[in-house]
User: What shape does this take?
Amino acid sequence: MVVCSSQLVPQIQQWAHELGFSQIGVAGVDLSCAEPGLMEWLAQGFHGEMHYMAAHGLKRARPAELVPGTVSVITARMNYLPRTTPEGWQALEFARLADSAQGAVSVYARGRDYHKVLRARLQKLSDRIAEAIGPLGHRVFTDSAPVLEAELAAHSGQGWRGKHTLVLSRDAGSMFFLGEIYIDVALPPSAPVSAHCGSCQSCMDVCPTQAIIAPHRLDARRCISYLTIEHAGPIPLELRPLIGNRIYGCDDCQLICPWNKYAQVSSLPDFDARAGLSGQQLVHLFAWDEPTFLRQTEGGPIRRIGHERWLRNIAVALGNGLRATGSAELRAALHTCAQHESALVREHVAWGLAQGI
Assistant: This one.
């Protein structure tokens, strides 16, 4: 079924707002302009161990090949700052990073797993559309398939690609999740917006590992979010000291961005920070056994890395804290896992202990 209806888009936007989305856009299926950049990025190996980035070839940039029959893509944006986020929250987060005894978890990961939240609400939105117009060929995505989410968002007027490669909005900064509905209904595309980064390169300058190697060019292999989440093996030795106390993800490029003074809090309780994750001491988090880790992270995004990588990440942070402070408490915590059954954990613990020599 292919139906052209400009009246449908305002109705979709209203339904989406009722479901907690902050903005809806519509993109066409022609992303050919993004294909050369994607292929070059993959050819240079900047995707690291994220083999799924290359597994589907150019289907990632060709929605109609990924889901045959797709003629339009509905893009959705959902703010994720917790509802209790105070004024000046960026300064508070930088202060957290300066406290070497505290574990820093990326803001987005402190609440419920966004995959579950967005996917369920995108499906509800799809159901409402189908109720209004009849049978609907569709598929919903939230960072879960070969989809160029940021490119689709930019094409549909959600914002522009910042120099850190994230989507930026003049009204909401970058503290939001993206989701898509591929549909077989022709809808009028939203107008894209112009870029407003100008000469600013704060995101590039602040990156602890200098992973943003050029404007709009990210080497994921150096990115702390990649290293602490996607990367399964040993963290490269030369990058460990630069990770500081970041144990899951990294927000630095967003914290420094001037546009995030306009970041909006979420309307949903799902993204409120869970007790036990935010503001916790490294020694406390390192003491979690696997059942405790699974219980504390149930329903959240952190669970996906597993207990072994959790300990690996914290061992690096403890080592960095030990080097900075010489704390006997941090040293003692590392010793508790010096004989851990995992070779990966033992190796990072040994490195951490060596930082206090």
Notes: The mean pLDDT is 93. The two ends are 69 Å apart (CA to CA). The longest strand covers residues 72-79. Residues 114-133 form the longest helix (20 residues).
